[in-house]
Amino acid sequence: MAVIDHWHPVLLSATLRREPKAVRVDGHDIVVFRTSSGSVAALDEVCPHRRMKLSLGCVVGDTVQCKYHGWTFAADGRGESPGTPKLHACATSYDARDDYGAVWVRRRGADTEFPQFDRTGYHPMGVLAHRIKAPLELVVDNFTEIEHTPTTHGIFGYPLELMPLVKVTFEATNTSVRTVNVGPSKPLPWILRKLVGIKPDDQFIDDWTTWFSPVYSRFDHEWGNPETGTRAKVGWRLFIVWTPVGPSETIATTFSYARSTYPGPSGGLRLFKWLMQRLLDREIGLDVAILEGLASHETGIEGMKLSRFDRSLGLNRDRIETVYRGHGAKRLSLAG
Ligand code: FES
Ligand SMILES: [Fe+2]
């Protein structure tokens, strides 16, 4: 198993129109294009003729045409040379699909499952992509602990002075790590409390699970009362998938959904979609800024002084090594 064997989102669907686009997954340079019939295709970026970038070419029918000498390549890689019609040329092709609002690729024919997002009861809010100049492990560290939320975030998370009251629990299987955090909410603008329907003694409940083929988490960000089980009127469900571009660059693609008990189609959220996506974009942008301030891109946790919120770091790394990178059968640490 190699990283490229897993499905990774590489582009927002809406940004792939008539022009081919260059993307990179774990160092593999790939051209993605949308054929005239609307389906997506992915090939090695390098033209087999004389190594031109295929992403500089154009789409002709169901093929991409190289800008240099006009050879064309279909979705399965089969190429044709206008000047030498009998010549057999083939480009390396990748599996490609257009799902959840993003274009995904993996090595052709790899034996991996496409991630299934459970969105039952949720309305789609949109998809965002953030490019972060940090390695995948360090990016996942940030998104899967809440100790940074008091100092980094505006809405999601907990106030710094009340962090000792935040309860955190971990559960792990061979293929997943779940973290649940419950504690006092940050002080929020009254308009947001009103719209989301947050009651004065509601807590912020941050419950997420990470899987490793590809590496992605489902986050439920909610306000509510953990004792009675009641929840505010609106809650977020995010799926964030991490695509390693190379050793020091990662794309976080966020598929955002929300539930609401307000009446009306889409739980009355249609009007607020734009605002909710702006808030989310800003919150994730704050994570990007903090990650780009890291003094080291060393991904090992040895030598770090870890806190009670950081247990997921080791649990995630074990599974990134075994499930995602396919590096041998390590004994996985399991949390009870
Ligand atoms: S380099 Fe692509 S057709 Fe010649
Ligand atoms: Fe964050």
Question: Can you walk through the features of this model?
Answer:
With 336 residues, this protein is an alpha+beta fold. It folds into 2 domains: 3-107, 3-layer Sandwich (Rieske Iron-sulfur Protein), CATH 2.102.10.10; 123-324, Naphthalene 1,2-dioxygenase Alpha Subunit, Chain A, domain 1 (Alpha-Beta Complex). The protein has 5 helices and 19 strands. The strands form 3 sheets. Strands 12, 13, 14, 15, 16, 17, 18 and 19 form an 8-stranded antiparallel sheet that branches. Strand 13 and strand 14 (176-184) form a beta hairpin. The radius of gyration is 22 Å and the shape is globular. FE2/S2 (inorganic) cluster binds next to loops.
Query: DSSP helix count?
Result: 5
Sheet bearing the most strands, described? 8 strands, antiparallel
**Overall pLDDT score:** 94
Oligomeric state of this protein: single chain
CATH architecture classification name of the largest domain: Alpha-Beta Complex
How far apart lie the N and C ends? Answer: 28 Å
CATH class of the largest domain: Alpha Beta
CATH superfamily of the largest domain: Naphthalene 1,2-dioxygenase Alpha Subunit, Chain A, domain 1
Q: Could you say which overall geometry the principal axes of the C-alpha atoms support?
A: globular
The fraction of residues assigned to DSSP E strands is: 35-45%
Q: What are the secondary-structure elements, in order, as H or E?
A: EEEEEEEEEEEEHHEEHEEEEEHH
The value of Rg in angstroms is 22 Å
CATH topology of the largest domain: Naphthalene 1,2-dioxygenase Alpha Subunit, Chain A, domain 1
Low-pLDDT regions: none
Helix content: 10-25%
Task: Give the total of domains.
Answer: 2
**Strands, count:** 19
